[in-house]
């Protein structure tokens, strides 16, 4: 999207949405033409008068289909909710803050039903094709937002991340995706998946755009990020599972990214992650996230299970047998592991690893249920770890000629601003 007035950039975004050869019909479920035009005109009027509402004034933004928008049914990618839901009485706090900051909300974007998959498929509203190869998955669950940002339908897409739902589609579509510390941004009036792990974050083509969206949503005053030299940053490369069994494209891109960082002055170390074994023990009993997802959607599942995406339904049904005792045990064990991981990461500033161990599979490669489940587990493998441990994390695109690959940087809970500063430095080094 070229620079220009808010109205000019809105015109560009709408042209991309409306392009019959593009993915607008599958990426954007609701288009706010009149409201966006009014917001863009107001932003341009303020600009002419030398007035600004802040870093998002006039920015072209989309929001995921799980945020309440006044007067609309929040569908969360579901036909059942579209049929049975009641119009929201008010905007979600996140949406309200975006509007108050002058953001031009152009569309509500598609998603995996109930946000419960990393593939990004939606049998009800269509699956947007990956910008790098339309025959491949976009990643999810914030599929529409990632495609919209990558394809120029918006400048910033607001999504959610419970197991990787901003970082996975960002990595597979070649953009930046951010997962903040869980309580950093309000989740009120946002359709939930897991109360323990849901977080709200932006996707965009640059770290700077994610920074300005995050600041507005978190209610922070705008202030310059620190600009650390990479040589002064303690960057550790994850050992073990996060770097095991990488496909050839990801392994090559990750190695090249580390080489570029080293040439830029970064001093890279290694960091073992023994606490992943504890996470695996918790998940053997079904997992906290699936148990909470089943609880949220149990009534819909019991009444209208046949109308729910079969792949999502299967994941929800597997959690039906989790007992209350097991859930309490898992939640308590997780809390202890979160505290231990925070201490374990105290000697590094960021931890580095590939965002996803594989590139985006083709749609044909996830057509069968068993293949869907296997690929879904793979794309979420590295990202879901940091929802479990309640860290903040960002995915940066690794430049290269092949399919998009993401570099994930992870920091301790509450270190969001510091992570952004390091990510901006890494982004510059990657080129």
SSE pattern: HHEHEHHEHEHEEHEHEHHHHEHHEEH
Instruction: Quote the CATH topology.
Output: Amidase signature (AS) enzymes
Dominant shape: globular
The count of helical stretches stands at 16
Approximately how much beta-strand content do the residues carry?
5-15%
Assign a percent range to the helix content: 40-55%
Q: Spatial order of the strands in the main sheet? A: 1-3-2-4-6-5-10-11-9-7-8
Tell me briefly what this model is.
With 431 residues, this protein is an alpha/beta fold. Helices cover 42% and strands 13% of the residues. β10 (392-397) and β11 (406-411) form a beta hairpin.
Structural notes for this entry:
By secondary structure, the chain is α/β, with parallel strands linked by helices. The mean pLDDT is 97. It has a single domain, classed as Alpha-Beta Complex (Amidase signature (AS) enzymes). The protein has helices at 6-18, 24-27, 33-48, 79-84, 93-100, 143-151, 167-173, 207-218, 248-263, 276-283, 288-304, 310-318, 324-344, 369-380, 383-388, 416-430; strands at 28-31, 60-64, 104-109, 156-160, 176-179, 200-204, 235-238, 268-271, 350-354, 392-397, 406-411. The protein has an eleven-stranded mixed sheet, with helices on both faces.
Can you give keywords for this protein?
single chain, 431 residues, Amidase signature (AS) enzymes, 16 helices
Write the layout of secondary structure elements.
Blueprint: H1 6-18, H2 24-27, E1 28-31, H3 33-48, E2 60-64, H4 79-84, H5 93-100, E3 104-109, H6 143-151, E4 156-160, H7 167-173, E5 176-179, E6 200-204, H8 207-218, E7 235-238, H9 248-263, E8 268-271, H10 276-283, H11 288-304, H12 310-318, H13 324-344, E9 350-354, H14 369-380, H15 383-388, E10 392-397, E11 406-411, H16 416-430
Parallel strand pairs: 2-3, 2-4, 7-8, 7-9
Antiparallel strand pairs: 1-3, 4-6, 5-6, 5-10, 9-11, 10-11
Helix pairs in contact: 1-3, 5-8, 10-13, 11-12
